[in-house]
Specification:
heterodimer; A: alpha+beta; Immunoglobulin-like; Cytochrome Bc1 Complex, Chain D, domain 2; 3 domains; five-stranded mixed beta sheet; about 35% helix; B: mainly alpha; Cytochrome C Oxidase, Chain A; binds copper (II) ion
Chain lengths: ~325, ~550
Amino acid sequence: MTLTLTSASVHSAEVDALLAGLLLMSLAVLALVFGLIWTYAIRYRAGNTEDRGAIGQKSWRIEIGWTVATLVVFFALFVWGADLYVRLYTAPGNALKIYVVGKQWMWKVEHEGGQREINALHVPVGRPVQLIMTSEDVIHDFSIPAFRIKHDVLPGRYEQLWFNAQTPGSYHLFCTQFCGTDHAAMIGEVVAMQQADYARWLTQNGGSDTLVAAGRDLFTRYGCSGCHQAGPTGGGGTVRAPSLNGLYGSPVPLADGTTVFADDKYIRDSILLPADQIVASYAPVMPSFSGQIGEDDLIKLIAFIKSLAAEGPS
Amino acid sequence: MSVTVDTPRVSYLTEENTIGSWLLTTDHKRIALLYFASITGFFFLGGIAAALMRINLLTPTGAIVSHEMYNRLFTMHGVVMVWFFLVPAIPVTLGNFIVPLMLGARDLAFPKLNLVSWYLFMTGGLFATYSLFAGGLDTGWTFYTPLSTDYTKGHVVAVAIGIFISGFSSIATGVNFIVSIHRLRAPGMGWYRMPLMLWSLYATSVIYVLATPVLAMTLILLGFETVFHVGIFDQRLGGDPLLFQHLFWFYSHPAVYIMILPGFGVMSEVLTTFSQKGIFGYKFIAWSSVAIAVISFFVWGHHMFVAGTSVYSAITFSLLSFMVSVPSAIKVFNWLGTLHKGYIKFDAPMLYALGFLGLFTIGGLTGLFVAALGADVHLTQTYFVVAHFHYIMVGGMVSAFFAGLHYWWPKITGRLYPEMWARAAAFLIFFGFNLTFFPQFILGYLGMPRRYAAYPPEFQVLNVLSSAGSTILAVAYLMPVFYLGYSLRHGARSPSNPWHATGLEWKTQSPPRTENFPIIPIVTEPPYNYPRPEDRTRAA
Ligand SMILES: [Cu+2]
Ligand SMILES: [Cu+2]
């Protein structure tokens, strides 16, 4: 019977420390409660004639005392937990990005270089890894107990999660949000490897195309290039459409007067629900690609549009 | 101290005994018994589903049923236990029976509404159970979208309608209690002379009345989207799946307190009676119930710390969740203060109550683990959470239910239950419960997700332990059925006040007559007016 869980990421020891703190506090309270019940049960049992003396009158002093003590302890625990939580979910800027798509009942993973895997995730140790996750159907949850991290994976959104693996090894990957019949089979493994091994793994499993290159192909295949300029080419058709160069990460003024920040979610929505957010001074003529482009292709298209950030606005 | 046993010839039980006189009764005591029969049925239905799950989890690949069947089992277990046992349990049975008696009234304010509430409950309950059996729902009791709207074959809408209908019975009971407590208190019974059971049922009723409509709205929206495909929760239609979770937990977190607050009330009654001592910190216990009812509406977001809400929302809800546990802690301390310098007797109700105290404390403390954000990320959606809420719901609430049931049994039936059997069952429940659920805390820490029909082999030992515990628990839960049933015919006649308790319910005969009191009593003393130790010593 194993009663310990490997602690394999930078933050897992911190989570364990918080858990230990909570456990100690609980044991102290339990000792107090059970101890008092036990003591009183013996000392004040009905048959015991021991003199009980008088009951103190000013009970509110005691009330205030234990209320304040409880508040102070709880507040300390709250701060401890909240601080850790913020760090658990704030990915550093230089993190290696890996894309995850959940669907009933498997995990599909795509690396920047185009390497793909199913129900497995290979990552290097000693380097922050950020997962960008979405779902093709219902809500799932990507959970790696050894790293003490999890996050729900929602359809129509890009949720993120990050970790910095420390110990090479193979760890459980669970879906922890109930997602239908084979929820319990939506499991896999996370393999953390030395950086050199990871580099070797990437070349051995070399994708035919990087995500960006695959996205460039799709951009033409889906007819986007007929309207949009992307890189040096595209656009120039009969329809006036915004150039996508330099779009990613910049503010976009919308027709309704508001301004949005062009992130993954915005680009995704622009492709699937173009009518919802119209770019200022353009006609709402872009067709909706909802139901035509799968999550995998979306990831590639977005990766391509992201790569155009460097092109600079034209 | 000898007691004369007055064997009442006439009582609410003997009055008239045709089927019609029971099914059309407006007597709160008889309606309580109707409810008793119903929720006992639902409890064992939910229990059978749980037993099958525990058997299945004996082996890593699932010992007896398919994944699909397992998913249906835990859905049925959750739906039945939450809506048709835990939410109504204490208020509609013990509460229904005892509220007018504690108030010194002849019935609740709206006796006919009370009867209607039972019919609503039964209609909803049978409808939902039938749909569960006929359609095999597999969404879990939480109905998360879009799984429940787009990706399940089960009868979501039918089950939702069942829950919707029975929700009205909750509202009816809530309104009835609130009005009764306001209007029907016996002369001389000010608010601070009410037994604490009434304070906690009052707080419960407020939640019934305010939270249940939100559940009703959510279920209507769910049905609407499923049937008419309007975008509310479905992101493809422009909806938001997280909206469902917000609405659902806006009801379901307060519902947790619907389940446990009445148990708090039972505790205050039983602990004082079996310590033969006044309650410690009456006002603090009373107002902490109200505080819980209020704060419980502002903590729903703690179910969504990893669901994709913002960091600010997580931090706010974490702080509020710590705050909502303060009043519960205050109660526990005050109950311990009540034991202090008491004259403690260990009859079965007291054993159940002490069991409650221990199990509820564990449940509450582990609640802090999941309120603390950084720890929740690891523990949420694992067996840790399952163990945590079973310590509150089953360890706490069901123990309190049994404490109250044994405590008022002589009043309800006019008979004494077999004490030794009852004590044995209390011990067995405590032991079986811990053996079932304690291993689940460890499983959760190790990462075993909840709602898994199969699991990696390294979790087997703890799962087998848990299943073994559940066997003991099952036996222990069956015991009261037999010995309480036995006492109905063969138990010794009970005097009107077998425990030497204060409280108006003990001042009338056991079992009471239909009109409860021959003359409406007048209250001249504070509640729990037991002799103080210093006075006792002087007298001795
Ligand atoms: Cu799942
Ligand atoms: Cu909650």
